[in-house]
Write a structure and sequence with these properties.
4 copies of one chain form a homotetramer. Chain A is mostly helical and 246 residues long. The first copy, chain A, has 10 helices and no strands. Chains in contact: A-B, A-C, A-D, B-C, B-D, C-D.
Chain lengths: 246, 246, 246, 246
Amino acid sequence: MNLQDIVQRSDTVAGRRFDRIVLLLIIASVVPMSLSTVTSFSQMWLAVFAAAEYVIIVLFTIEYVLRIVTAERKWAYILSFYGVIDLVALLSFYVTMFWGGMLDLRAFRALRLLRLFSTFEFARYAKATVRIGRALKYARDEAAVFLFATLVLLYIAAMGIYHFESEVQPEKFDTVFHSLWWAVVTLTTVGYGDTYPITVGGRIWTFVILLLGMGIVAVPAGLIATGLSRAIEEERRAARGGEEED
Amino acid sequence: MNLQDIVQRSDTVAGRRFDRIVLLLIIASVVPMSLSTVTSFSQMWLAVFAAAEYVIIVLFTIEYVLRIVTAERKWAYILSFYGVIDLVALLSFYVTMFWGGMLDLRAFRALRLLRLFSTFEFARYAKATVRIGRALKYARDEAAVFLFATLVLLYIAAMGIYHFESEVQPEKFDTVFHSLWWAVVTLTTVGYGDTYPITVGGRIWTFVILLLGMGIVAVPAGLIATGLSRAIEEERRAARGGEEED
Amino acid sequence: MNLQDIVQRSDTVAGRRFDRIVLLLIIASVVPMSLSTVTSFSQMWLAVFAAAEYVIIVLFTIEYVLRIVTAERKWAYILSFYGVIDLVALLSFYVTMFWGGMLDLRAFRALRLLRLFSTFEFARYAKATVRIGRALKYARDEAAVFLFATLVLLYIAAMGIYHFESEVQPEKFDTVFHSLWWAVVTLTTVGYGDTYPITVGGRIWTFVILLLGMGIVAVPAGLIATGLSRAIEEERRAARGGEEED
Amino acid sequence: MNLQDIVQRSDTVAGRRFDRIVLLLIIASVVPMSLSTVTSFSQMWLAVFAAAEYVIIVLFTIEYVLRIVTAERKWAYILSFYGVIDLVALLSFYVTMFWGGMLDLRAFRALRLLRLFSTFEFARYAKATVRIGRALKYARDEAAVFLFATLVLLYIAAMGIYHFESEVQPEKFDTVFHSLWWAVVTLTTVGYGDTYPITVGGRIWTFVILLLGMGIVAVPAGLIATGLSRAIEEERRAARGGEEED
């Protein structure tokens, strides 16, 4: 049995074992990643977590190299969805290690968790992931337009509230950039309550923006849901059609 | 008339009376359960509520045993939707009674309220419940993927905000676990306002996470709605088709 | 021309004029209703607003009596959508006038605004209203089940948070009824920030409840939207079918 | 080559170059518009930003005049979607320049950003925009009814909460207009936390209004999403039908 059968295939005993080890490694990697933020641990424990992170990253690096080496079409793997996730997760570690003072990208290591769907244990979810990808593609342009409209609306909302509130609450609506924070928190309906309008004009503006905004911000999620529902339906119909033809 | 006709059937007079008594008992059980939390009641009243709870639980236990005894396929009942609800509601009481100091599961007794749909008075809602179950099954894998993606996104959001805010607000973003609370409150758009980012980096991170998150967190509800709408449509078409064929 | 032609029909000159007067009266009635809450007005002005409200209610009472008198099927009108709205709006005034100390129902006078859709100026919206009614009927049972599930979930959420938080924050989670307020504010994702969990257990409970809740609370709106979309589609297909047959 | 080919067409070299210059100008115009709100800049820089705004507005005015002059059907352009956006963006500047003390409409200049979709670089998004427009038209009447119902609900919510809270919190629920602010913040589920009910009656009222409101406020976004999904589907079917006929 050669290396390729172990790394690339999941229908051999060794291949499944390799998949399962990677799966466990991904799940295990969450532990030191999380615990290293708990600074109340003693120095010794923090050193253990850091060491564990180094071991894990070495193993992931070996796995990544193995995947490229054994791949028949190397660029196809590197540019695939899971290839990109692997690369981003690895780079986020190495960049942080070398330029951590400037740029801390550790958060993106967690992207690797999405790899769980690629292992054979989750084959049925892998199918669902493919359907989701197709649904996203389906309404991609419309979602992009709504996303851009959201950005423009955020900017208009921020410009408007700056005009109404900057004189009354200069510490909160200092510039249009400060006002953008209010716009994000309001249009997503999070509403922390750290910044809110107190003038009559600002409140009417908030009302107008929210009426417009709720019909824009929530649409992409709705598009994904209906697109996905349609993709499932088509697949089912195709499956039924195929059965009837047999 | 034997016991089986009373407990299992709802098309006999005694069966309907049994159903109606259980229905009233379920509704009545809410009263002592709720009032026992009002500690401003006198000790005597609290004792009355506790006693009422014991009486009710004895009645429910008898009913549960009766249902198993009279069922033709006992395991089928125990593992059915309402069988599991009954068991959880009973166990939540007994566990709390014996190990209440360690584990208080009383909240789950309220699950029993869902049993109302199983009584014959609500037959039409029982049908709707079946359709909902079918709609949930329909997009189950996709919903699971989105749920998992939500969990990963929450983790990434928490890791990122920890990086930006932990130094400036150490009391609120102490560890990644504290930051997870912020992530939950923000991505569900609840936004209590107890924790929110104050650095520029943390605010931009919140913006990015919300743009991604709103297209992920709201999708499962949309999937259920469209799946359900489709299930209703198919049933109606089938009904119409049947009529036309007659 | 008799009274019936004026009140009941909208295809005569006098009927249209009657409709338009009612329309203006409805819109005008908002002014004294709103301004009477501005207590900073002088006593004289408040008396003017009160007087205007009496005049308006007399006119609406006359209109309601006229509608019943001229209706061919009187009970059909009284029990129709707009008949009930008229009655509720009138009763809310009279009840408040006589038992205002005990029961203030003035808010419901505003329901009359929905009557605008019944006037001939808004005929196309009347059609849309009919479609909405059909869409609501379409998924009525499912929506009722989700509404009931929401109520049960609110109760379970309140019972759970009471268990976790009542000892630490007794002033906010005093009884299960106080906790219900938290449950409502949280599950609707309003999140005022007046009550929120501070224990680890309470926060995990909030997370679990929100994950479940977001897939339940938002579904009815989605059901209405998809049902409505389907109703529009069917109508359009029927219209096209009719054209093709001509 | 005449002026018309440059301004109106995008299939000539000069036309594309013209389009691209306008595109860059639109993006560039955001910079001085945003930075002019950062009052911590020195007077000199603020003067530079103001000057840049004047230059940009002169260029946009020239472009607008050119578009009208070279248009074959001048009114058709002026009343088109992008013609109206251009006019509003220009007028918002000139109105602010001359009556800025009274009326500051600068926020609406940002509407011009929507023009990006009209340039040939974004042809595919232009198509998506057309589909969105069709989807909006599709459920226009229903969305209008829901919007109006939202307004009536906001008013009823405000009248009700005024009744419950105005005596206890006179500074926050002073008049029905103050209460409307609470209604807007609550029904959109933003929930800043600056105003919230504290009486039992006010809280039950909030619960009732939210149960009704969540089934109304979120529907328009759902209508747009399902309508859009349907529009995409029809277009795809038409495309497939065309292919089959070939």
